Amino acid sequence: MEYDQSYRSIFSHPQVVEELLQEFVQEQWVNDIDFSSLEKRNGSYVSDDLRDRSDDIIWRVKVKDSWLYLYLLIEFQSRNDPWMAVRLMVYIGLLYQDLIKSGAINEDERLPPVFPIVVYNGETRWTAEQALSRLIGPCAGGMESYRPKLRYALLDEGRVPDALLAELNSTLSEMIRLENSPTPQALRAIIARLKERLKDKCHDSLRRALAVWLNRVVIRKLVPGENIPELTDLQEIDNMLAERVEQWTRKWESAGRQKGRQEGCQEGESKLLLRLIQKRFSDIPAWAKARIDAASEAQLEQWAENILDASTLEEVFQD
Q: Quick check: is 205 in a domain?
């Protein structure tokens, strides 16, 4: 998808990766990173069963003279993946396998630590469990030590607190503001700040990547169906917005009203389904609430029909 590739192109720049870690990973070890050592690694490796992982972004960086691998997974789907921790366990295993096969790790060396982080920009809140151990059922006596442990970090762009975002002044924070569908005037103000921030020649590649992302993703999402010229320069995009700002403002306002009506309808369906479940089964477990919060309108309608014949709560959620 164009969205995927344009977004990954931006996160292939060390400046954006540095901002991601410094601004959104609130952990002590980040202070010990030598960001001048950031190296983008080959994310194209294939496992024995030929599953290609070429779309993932892998960096390595030195933390107190030891290498740390950053496994960056961009998630674009509209609903969060409840099995993301399992996916990442597999992907990290494939990464380790590739490091061993390629000779990057010798037999007398230990495997490097990997920091997995998911960047998510779906409209619904990310509710999936971030710790793999919590996805595994109870262990019999003596088996607890064999439970695999892995946890991933999460940047849910749509849920970054406004107070935190207001304090930040970086390329990544401007991207998050753009993701949150600003007005045409706010969009132009953000572009103006990006032009000033990235005016030096060393930022040419990042400016182009941002321009392509803005053109193919942000603007097309805000004014779907518009005939938008293919632009690869921030100034050209700003000029286009200046010419069309009044026309697009009317479209954005109309689209905003329609979206509000749709969200209100979906919220009503969610509340109704929760009441029906509570009346039929008494208790509403956390996993059921999470599925309802992340569901589409079509799924909510299907589950509401299922509840008429379901004998167990699990049968309600069969698609």
A: no
Task: Name the residue with higher pLDDT: 307 or 95.
Answer: 95
**What pLDDT is attached to residue 209?**
92
The verdict on residue 190 lying in a domain is: no
9 and 108 part of one domain: yes
Task: Please report the pLDDT score of residue 49 as a whole number.
Answer: 47
- Taking the alpha carbons at both ends of the chain, their separation in whole angstroms is 26
- Please tell me the least confidently modeled range out of 11-20, 126-135, 266-275: 266-275
The rounded distance, in Å, linking the Cα atoms of 277 and 106 is 56
Give me the sheet containing 66-75, strands edge to edge: 33-41, 57-63, 66-75, 114-120, 153-156
What total number of domains does the chain contain?
2
Quick one: 165 and 247 in the same domain? no
Q: Where in the sequence is the domain holding 287, given as residue range(s)?
A: 214-316
Residue 16 lies in a domain: yes
| Integer angstrom CA distances of residue 171 from 72, 160, 184, 312 | 17, 15, 19, 49
**Token pair for residue 100?**
């061993």
Same domain, 32 and 105: yes
Give the tens place of pLDDT for each residue, 27-82: 999 999 999 999 998 766 555 444 555 567 899 999 998 999 999 888 766 678 89
Nearest Cα to Cα of residue 153 among 25, 22, 7, 55: 25
Q: Is residue 185 part of a domain?
A: no
Beta-strand pair 57-63/66-75: antiparallel
Helix or strand (DSSP H, E) at 253: helix 234-281
